[in-house]
Amino acid sequence: MTVQAQFPDESVEGAFVRQGDAFRDWVRADGSTPYAPAFGRYHLYVSLACPWAHRTIIVRALKGLEDAIGMSVVDPVRDELGWAFREVDDATTGDPVNGFDYLAQAYQQMDPHYHGRITVPVLWDTHTQRIVSNSDDDIMRMFETEFDALARHDVDLYPHEHGAAIDKLNDEIYETVNNGVYRAGFAATQAAYEPPAYRLFEQLDALDARLANRRYLFGAAPVETDWRLFVTLIRFDPVYHGHFKCNLRRIVDYPNLSGYVRDLYQIRGIAPTVNFDHIKRHYYATHDEINPTRIVPIGPLQNLNAPHGREHVSA
Predict the structure, then answer these.
(1) Is the pTM of this model over 0.85?
(2) Which end of the chain has a smaller Cβ tally under 10 Å, C or N?
(3) What's the pLDDT tens digit per position in 113-137?
């Protein structure tokens, strides 16, 4: 039997191996790069469905950079031409900056010979008409550290005293949870599926235990790592549990992780960044190899505004 991977170019013996980011320039406030922070200069292209893009949307909101950095939202259903700018509902925007029909046009403008998968997020420089970065890690960190002069809110998501520990836990969570759900969900063989699936739940168990005696991963206030984890946890029960076969447990089954997700969701500015319609339609209608019928499940029903009880956990 021939086994077809969801992304054949990113499959090695049935295992999903994510492609690297193609463009990784930086905006620097110190003038060390050609890209200086400036009001209205940069534009963020995102999908509300994508967890990687969601990270950057969250940091933009937490820092209060919405006026300084514009944002366009693509159609959640990606077709054979990739992410498209269609105004299909109240959340999608079209592309008022370049008039692109597809995000692929931005990539082709950078490199006419680019043949990799077109991904979000993309940070676009309107002055040079170039992609600055398509790395969510880098864009998050730029928004956190390089745009302070334009930010409305003073939020420190990368406190110096925790820097090394944040980087270490970021790497662990990326490998086992953020990318772990994809390694399980996009696996094309049983042998490729089981190890990342089991490792995912080992890490979720460890994180639940960690949160038993601290409100957030590093104490009294959420940092970058919390938001990197949040974007996977918020999608877990609606999508990854069933669609990606990560079904040993749900997040609602974890006593600490479940309240933790509600706690983060209820922080000012976060709820508007979560769009379950886009999330579910994207995954269930786009991954044909996994869900050929494109039927979008009607559940689960979640009350993310229910009391979280986390304020009673010691810092």
Answers:
(1) yes
(2) N
(3) 998 999 999 999 999 999 999 999 9
From the list 35, 102, 107, 182, the catalytic residue is: 182
* pLDDT tens per residue, range 263-311: 999 999 999 999 999 999 999 999 999 999 999 999 999 999 999 999 9
- In eight-state DSSP terms, residue 46 is E
Longest Cα separation, the chain: 58
16 forms beta bridges with: 11
Is there a catalytic annotation at residue 182?
yes
Structure tokens at 253: 């089954």
Residue of 42, 45, 50, 260 marked catalytic? 50
Give the 3-state secondary structure of residue 241: coil
Nearest to 77 by CA among 274, 282, 276: 282
Q: Using alpha carbons, select from 74, 77, 54, 56 the residue that is nearest to residue 65.
A: 56
DSSP character for 70? E
